């Protein structure tokens, strides 16, 4: 696949003209538009790469196959394809939620592409396990997957307020709900399954790139213990507990998100 095809497939946008490159990777049920609240702070100073995973946003849905995207590795390959197509090096990869692990896996495969990783609301495993609190029981996730299949609009309306967790800002919850419902139901269910049943704990010791872990203080999707677990198992990592609540601080608390990212980039 050539550069033009990859850029079209993933709806790649390049903004800004700075020396350093930031690559922003959205989470499940979202697309690149979710970065709009923090972009103005970085666009004057950095080159910014935005994209949609295949199956999200304005990506080429015809490029989606269950074989490729039936695990996180298909999404990892999307990231590496874009980096190769744009000839990127020394990238600061900013990943939200599941994209944190996608970025980490990509950095393990091709560390020379990455300068650092910034993880917003990351989790190595969403399911609880013996001696590990991921936040969900398997039955919780199965119910969620069934709901996506049976009542897609109902699922979006149910999950959006729980995930955003900022009831005093209902417009943000509505924005997230619209994002959820704009996606393809079949692809969304498969991406949810890949996300919630993923387990990257064995990969953490292989991560060598400098990493910032940003954890919200009250996140319905990722408990604080999951962020602390990552910090304990990624050798070259820093941990910042945010005042922000919810799972989308780059939307609900852009100022705090910008401040933490800037201070990390300036160290």
Estimate the global geometry from the Cα principal axes. Answer: globular
Report mean pLDDT, rounded to a whole number. Answer: 96
Q: What is the H-and-E element order?
A: HEEHEHEHEHHHHEHEHH
β-strand percent reads 15-25%
Strand order of the largest sheet: 1-3-2-4-5-6-7
Specify the helix fraction band.
40-55%
For the biggest sheet, the summary is:
7 strands, mixed
Q: How many strands appear in the DSSP assignment? A: 7
Low-confidence stretches: none
| Total helical elements | 11
Compute the gyration radius: what is it?
17 Å
The structural class is: alpha/beta
The termini sit apart by 38 Å
What does this structure look like?
By secondary structure, the chain is of the alpha/beta class. The chain is 42% helix and 16% strand. It has eleven helices and seven strands. The chain has a seven-stranded mixed beta sheet, with helices on both faces. Helix 1 packs across helix 3 and helix 5 (138-150) runs antiparallel to helix 8 (185-196). The mean pLDDT is 96.
């Amino acid at each position: 696949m050539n550069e033009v095809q990859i850029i079209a497939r993933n709806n790649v946008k390049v903004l800004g003209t700075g020396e350093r490159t930031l690559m922003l990777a959205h989470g499940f049920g979202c697309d690149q538009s979710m970065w709009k609240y923090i972009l103005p702070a970085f666009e004057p100073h950095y080159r910014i790469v935005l994209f949609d995973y295949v199956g999200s946003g304005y990506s080429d849905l015809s490029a989606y196959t269950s074989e490729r995207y039936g695990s996180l590795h298909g999404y990892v390959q999307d990231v590496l394809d874009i980096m190769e197509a744009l000839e990127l090096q020394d990238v600061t990869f900013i990943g939200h939620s599941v994209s944190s692990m996608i970025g980490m896996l990509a950095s393990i495969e091709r560390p020379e592409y990455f300068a650092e990783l910034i993880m917003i609301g990351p989790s190595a495993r969403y399911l609880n396990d013996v001696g590990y609190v991921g936040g969900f029981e398997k039955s919780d996730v199965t119910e969620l997957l069934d709901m996506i299949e049976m009542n897609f609009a109902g699922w979006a309306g149910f999950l959006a307020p729980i995930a955003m967790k900022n009831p005093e800002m209902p417009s943000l919850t509505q924005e997230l709900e619209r994002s959820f419902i704009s996606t393809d139901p079949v692809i969304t269910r498969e991406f949810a399954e890949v996300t919630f049943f993923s387990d990257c704990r064995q990969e953490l010791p292989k991560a060598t790139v400098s990493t910032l872990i940003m954890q919200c203080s009250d996140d319905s999707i990722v408990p604080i213990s999951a962020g602390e677990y990552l910090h304990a198992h990624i050798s070259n990592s820093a941990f910042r507990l945010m005042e922000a609540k919810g799972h989308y601080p780059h939307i609900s608390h852009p100022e705090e998100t910008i401040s933490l990212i800037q201070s990390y980039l300036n160290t």
